[in-house]
Design brief:
Layout (H helix, E strand, L loop, with lengths): L1 H11 L4 H18 L1 H14 L5 H27 L2 H7 E4 L10 E4 L6 H9 L5 E4 L5 H11 L6 E4 L5 H8 L4 E3 L10 E6 L2 E6 L1 H9 L2 E9 L4 E5 L11 H18 L23
Parallel strand pairs: 1-9, 2-5, 2-8, 3-4, 3-5
Antiparallel strand pairs: 6-7, 8-9
Helix pairs in contact: 2-4, 3-4
Length: 284
Amino acid sequence: MTRLALFLMWLLHGLPQPLLAACGRAFGRLFFLFGRERREVALTNLRLCFPALSEAERSALARRHFAAFGRSFLERGILWWASPQRIRRLIALEGLERIPRDRPVILLAPHFVGLDMGWTRLCLELDMVSLYANQKNPHFNAALYRGRLRFGHSELLSRQEGTRRAIRAMQAGKPFYYLPDLDYGPRDAIFVPFFGVPAATITGLSRLSRLTGAAVVPVVTRMTEQGYRVEIGAAWQDFPGESIEADTRRMNAFIEEEVRKSPEQYFWLHKRFKTRPPGEKRLY
């Protein structure tokens, strides 16, 4: 079944982008209708993060999110099989000059649906390093791995390997494309607010910056009508700050601010609040 799905993705990637986007949105809408478990996860997240919205408004937002997710999923085929020229036309890049070249760099990349588009577009310009989590399906995992390493000499390291190799790559001049905004469990995490809800958040951004002297440069990839736009911000000033906890709060506050700009594009399918403080009940 997975091989058939990958074959269909390969067939579809040659479609004109507007038609491929329409197919992706349709796929996302079907996923919303039939993917009951993930639909409930998304609605729970939205209820926790946007309590002021009505139930109808949250449902509409969830539907837009599933449509955006479906579109990004099918458009991965462009990343995996299309030419560099087409990828450059699809994905605009802003602010490449803001990445320092005289010190280690952490590219803070929150989990928006265009995350892979940002990685691939940047790989056309520079070599990077990142961590990845193995997917349960081996065929999809292999396709994802190959697709992410099509260009240049970037490195993808298993999360189980830890960060030592990533640190060495950073020190050798490769920016670290870092995705620290999922719930990875209680290990190496502290509870800090995310949309006012205590969220188990790993402290790696602060610790790595303190250890390596790396600059933290935010990278947000947004979906547009015509494709995607990778927005590279200015390196954070006064980071790391007074404490690891304060740094981690700052990171979550930054991500929250970016999410509010395009809430339908954040990865609400993930159980962001799965790990709870001692004594609190489960939310999913």
